[in-house]
Design brief:
Elements: H1 25-33, E1 37-40, E2 43-46, E3 49-53, H2 54-62, E4 71-72, H3 75-84, E5 100-101, H4 103-109, E6 116-121, E7 124-136, H5 139-147, H6 166-172, E8 177-185, E9 190-191, H7 202-212, E10 217-222, H8 228-237, E11 248-255, H9 265-277, E12 286-292, H10 300-313, E13 317-320, H11 335-342, E14 363-366, E15 370-373, E16 378-381, H12 396-404, H13 416-429, H14 436-445, E17 448-449
Parallel strand pairs: 1-6, 10-11, 10-13, 11-12, 13-14
Antiparallel strand pairs: 2-3, 4-8, 5-8, 6-7, 7-8, 9-17, 15-16
Helix pairs in contact: 5-6, 7-10, 9-13
GO biological process, one term: sulfate assimilation
GO molecular function: ATP binding; sulfate adenylyltransferase (ATP) activity
Family: Belongs to the sulfate adenylyltransferase family.
Amino acid sequence: MPDVRIKTLPPPHGGKLVERVVRDPEMARKLMQKCSAVYDIKPTLFKGNPVRNVYREIMSVCYGFFSPVEGSMTKADLESVLEKRRLTSGWVFPYPILFDISEEDFKKLGVGAGDWLLLRLKGEPFAILEIEEVYEIAPGEVAVRTFGTPEHNPEVVKVPFDQKHTGYNIYCSLNPIILAGKYTIINEPKIRPPFDRFWYPPKRSREEFEKRGWTTVIAHQTRNVPHTGHEALMKNAAYIGDIEPSHGIVVNAIVGAKRIGDFPDEAIVEGHEMVHLAGYIKPERHLVTFTLWDMRYGNPIESLIHAVIRQNMGISFHMFGRDHAALGEYYDIYATQILWSKGIPSFGFDAPPYAVEGGFYLRPQNIAEFWYCPKCLEFAYSANCNHKGIYSRYSGSFIRGLINEGVTPPPQIYRPEVYKVVVKWWQKFGYPFNNEKYLKEREERLEVDLPHMELPAHLKK
């Protein structure tokens, strides 16, 4: 496999960047004429709360974040992903990407293989699904096989998944009927503020990297407002290992429905932006972006979708730390680093994901555990700090507890400028963290608006 240290951006995963967005209104009208029925996209609910909206997956597919995936998976692709973490084409892909509907809605639509279905979002035409196959799933089985079990994946899965895990609930809450086929966006959405200035789908991100002269780029995955530990992580990771150093640091925030207790997405993207606006990282080396995805909190499995997304964006290296993209104690805290260091055979990887057929050009930057040392007055690693007995590890729950009590975190935890961003959105929403109210309100507004587009006469019935 080619050496990614060659000074060129890595190729898209699968070899070709998917872009399935029609921008010509006349072409859009012609495509709508071929549709047999209209379906209004609905959120996936768990106990009445939105945990997923398939529109985000459609956006990420059609703008190339999930290349080479082009739509809702066939039954063969679903089985291949669950069994081997590979598409039937052989390319590594970790998660089921499915368009699910209820039996009742399926009967009302009256569609089948060969039909085209117009998908409507916020009352407007949005995308087309070219139905290739219709099949049924058992959502609970899909959920278990997606994340693994202690019996089948003993290397890294510690306890069975349950309803305390947000990602597991997403798959358990799917409808049983799957419509498989390619997506095409025919009414390009407008990204709403403040997300609009952070929208860098793969084609645009690659153009931006070339404009900036970046050929080696490292990704920082985030679902949090950045504390000073994240800042130290970005600064250090860009200068160690094989980076040589990295020309650019790209923050790619996951924007979508998340667990209750996480920060609002608006605060996350603007908080990371403030890191360079306030001068803590040079703006010419730092770019904040986002991907639409309802986070699954899948630790090693989630790291694979992150690799898909970031390699497609043109990113060559990725930071992976302790408990990467995790929730609870389901996985070993170093599961992602185990995967990217030597592989996890029970998940289909006898070698790291960059060393297998159909794997990645992107390379990992596994980060050693670090802490804030009150003696050194800086972030330290076990290899170079002699004060481990007095170190202070950052705790997200501790930080959230401070904020909930109205206590301003000290500058050793949050840059004052970043904390002002937290307060700004706290004042806007009336609460500092995701709660049921936020999840339901954001489902109404989403992250996009759509231009008005008339339905064809035959679909107005």
